[in-house]
């Protein structure tokens, strides 16, 4: 008995790990019914050896699938072991892991068996059992199955904290190439169902307090990076559009990990390293768009369709717009300080709060936790030395690259042989 | 410079602040009862904790600082360290001697210092929420042993009480020899007799629930299978889960 469940868990956790969403924050479900669990800020309970956080029990209900998407490890034509959990198994794993403080909740996805509605119904069954029978108030992230009916998706939204459905590839053409059975239109349709219901429930709740929660932590989506040939501009424009049109909470970028040795698939072959730096730069840009007031066109455009890999996108933007700098820390607008490379949201807030009490000097700025090595080229403090010669962008970039050791570049051998 | 000897309690610290105004001492060195070594120069007085005086100071701080910094001050006390308390003492004097709102003057070392201390303690508190691993005993009691850098158990009590409202649990701080016990009604601080403490602190002595080892194994299986080998990055892994916590993590056994 225990051997079988161990095997199932291995297979179905392994198949689910390519979904990178790990958030357990943003919901407001509280333990009001004397049950178990609550949600709030989100907690990463552990980190795997690849450095990614583990906050939810991320599993597939089954890896049987009727589709044959080339990038997916569970595709019909792939020769892998198949397994399926029973409802009881998922429920007892979730409850027992949660009670031991291993996890924040459940992330449930599934291969599509029989048809979309049949699959969605099984997933909904699990979520309902957790909420209604086990009085589980922890976080539940439920994947929307493409093509599932509006009625099922709406009902699922009453029990899940977050729902998501993946775009898979950044453009429709890319998706057509690797997964002709899927389309962005279908994804948009499902996102719309949840978004509209969400608006409906929220406006009703303003009048009647007892209206139930509906997907309180919002929706997210995911794009695979580096499988097809889209450039960063195409990726980010898609992300930007989905943030705006569907009020998504997050867009995730997943560097493609080759699972295929069939060169007819047109995808990178096994052994190609995942594009981790590119993925990192995309996330940085995503943050700049959401929290730093940058518009997507400032960061990528026809002149710069791809992000710099050697410097972060904020620094890259600043170097391209050298005429806006240096910024005077003691009088510049908050929005402009936020745009200085090396200064984050918290430091910018501290600077603006502190300067009311007197001019800020270099030693004070340094202590506030900004990356002064980068920022120094773009700011002026009360005691910044006045320099007649302005460094040009290329010089600044060179200085910064020489000062810092990128964590991505392998370090030089520690000691050279004397002889 | 004069030394104040106090008992290391939160109210004790606030009483010291009160006394320094009463006695017009601006330069004060705080000392703990046990560790006080008579100073070669200067005087020392013993400050006896007084709740009334303490609450007056607390009220004053509330009037002059905003909610965030009030919380920082309270959290900071759990750093459980005389240097932190000294900074908090100096910070309080700085707040009282200046106009309201000065608690946002991050250009000042004391103001910045307090938010740093609070951040450190708060980070450890958050880690405890994440890294505590309960084991279920045969008596249905969920128990966990912890060893936090700062004395943060009281700061996570409410979190675990809300979360695990329907299961009795006990947390034991190995370093500070006390624990929290939730009996389905309330959380109490408990001091263990050595034998009792051993009973949960020494794994061999505990009678576990029949299913305990199965779920621990399943969790380890899950942990290993959700890892993407192609992206191995041990530096990042250790940065997120520092090695000193591994001893207490089921998945790292």
From TrEMBL, chain A:
Keyword Flavoprotein among record annotations: no
Iron recorded as keyword: yes
UniProt domain Radical SAM core: residue ranges: 60-200
InterPro entries reported for this sequence: Aldolase_TIM (IPR013785), DNA_rSAM_put (IPR023874), Endo/Exo/Phosphatase_dom_1 (IPR051675), rSAM (IPR007197), rSAM_sf (IPR058240), RuvA_2-like (IPR010994)
An example molecular function term from Gene Ontology annotations: metal ion binding
Co-factor(s): [4Fe-4S] cluster
This protein's UniProt keywords: Iron, Iron-sulfur, Metal-binding, S-adenosyl-L-methionine
Record-linked SUPFAM superfamilies: Radical SAM enzymes, RuvA domain 2-like
Domain of life, per lineage: Bacteria
The protein's name: Putative DNA modification/repair radical SAM protein
Naturally occurring in which organism (per UniProt): Taibaiella lutea
């Amino acid at each position: 008995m225990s051997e079988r469940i161990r095997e199932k868990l291995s297979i179905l956790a392994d198949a689910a790990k390519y979904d990178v969403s790990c958030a357990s924050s943003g919901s407001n479900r509280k333990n009001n019914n004397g049950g178990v669990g609550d949600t709030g800020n989100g907690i990463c309970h552990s980190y795997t050896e690849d450095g990614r956080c583990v906050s939810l029990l991320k599993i597939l209900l089954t890896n049987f699938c009727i589709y044959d998407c080339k990038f997916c490890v569970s595709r019909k034509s792939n020769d892998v072991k198949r397994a399926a959990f029973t409802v009881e198994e998922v429920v007892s794993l979730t409850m027992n892991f949660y009670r031991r403080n291993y996890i924040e909740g459940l992330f449930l996805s599934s291969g599509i068996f029989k048809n979309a509605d049949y699959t969605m119904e099984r997933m909904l069954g699990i979520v309902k059992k957790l909420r209604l029978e086990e009085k589980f108030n922890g976080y539940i992230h439920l994947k929307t199955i493409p093509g599932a009916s509006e009625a099922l998706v709406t009902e699922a939204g009453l029990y899940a904290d977050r729902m998501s459905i993946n775009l898979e590839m950044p453009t429709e053409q890319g998706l057509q190439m690797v997964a002709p059975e899927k389309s962005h239109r279908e994804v948009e349709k499902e996102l719309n169902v949840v978004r509209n219901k969400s608006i409906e429930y929220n406006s009703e709740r303003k009048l009647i307090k007892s209206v139930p929660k509906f997907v309180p932590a919002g929706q997210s989506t995911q794009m695979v990076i580096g499988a097809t040939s889209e450039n960063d501009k195409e990726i980010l424009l898609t992300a930007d559009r989905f943030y705006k049109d569907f009020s998504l909470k997050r867009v995730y970028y997943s560097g493609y990990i080759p699972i295929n040795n069939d060169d007819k698939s047109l995808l990178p072959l096994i052994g190609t390293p995942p594009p981790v730096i590119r993925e990192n730069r995309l996330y940085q840009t995503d943050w700049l768009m959401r929290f730093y007031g940058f518009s997507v066109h400032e960061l990528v455009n026809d002149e710069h369709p791809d992000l710099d890999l050697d410097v972060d996108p904020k620094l890259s933007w600043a170097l391209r717009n050298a005429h806006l700098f240096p910024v005077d820390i003691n009088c510049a607008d908050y929005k402009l300080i936020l745009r200085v490379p090396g200064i984050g949201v918290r430091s910018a807030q501290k600077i603006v709060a502190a300067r009311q009490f007197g001019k800020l000097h270099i030693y004070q700025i340094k202590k506030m936790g900004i990356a002064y090595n980068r920022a120094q080229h773009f700011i002026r403090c009360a005691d910044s030395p006045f320099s007649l010669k302005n460094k040009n962008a290329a010089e600044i970039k060179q200085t910064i690259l020489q000062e810092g050791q990128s964590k991505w570049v392998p370090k030089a051998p520690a000691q050279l042989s004397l002889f | 410079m004069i030394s104040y000897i106090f008992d290391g309690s939160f109210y004790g610290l606030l009483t010291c602040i009160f006394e320094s105004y009463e006695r017009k001492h601006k330069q004060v060195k705080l000392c703990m009862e046990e560790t006080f070594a008579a100073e070669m120069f200067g005087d020392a007085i013993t400050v006896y904790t007084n709740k009334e005086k303490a609450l007056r100071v607390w009220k004053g701080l509330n009037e002059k600082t905003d909610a965030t910094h009030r919380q920082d001050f309270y959290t900071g006390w759990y750093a459980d360290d005389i240097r932190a308390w000294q900074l908090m003492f100096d910070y309080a004097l700085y707040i009282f001697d200046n106009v309201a709102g000065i608690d946002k003057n991050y250009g000042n070392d004391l103001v910045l210092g307090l938010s740093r201390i609070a951040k450190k303690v708060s980070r450890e508190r958050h880690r405890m929420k994440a890294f505590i691993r309960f084991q279920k005993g045969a008596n249905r009691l969920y128990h966990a042993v912890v060893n936090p850098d700062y004395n943060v158990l009281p700061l996570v009590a409410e979190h675990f009480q809300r979360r695990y409202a329907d299961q009795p649990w006990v947390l034991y701080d190995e370093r500070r020899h006390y624990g929290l016990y939730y009996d389905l009604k309330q959380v109490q601080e408990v001091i263990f007799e050595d034998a009792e403490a051993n009973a949960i602190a020494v794994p061999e002595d505990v009678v576990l629930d029949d299913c305990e080892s199965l779920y621990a194994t399943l969790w380890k299986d899950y942990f290993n299978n959700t890892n993407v080998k192609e992206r191995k990055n041990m530096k990042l892994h250790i940065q997120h889960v520092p090695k000193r916590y591994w001893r207490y993590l089921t998945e790292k056994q």
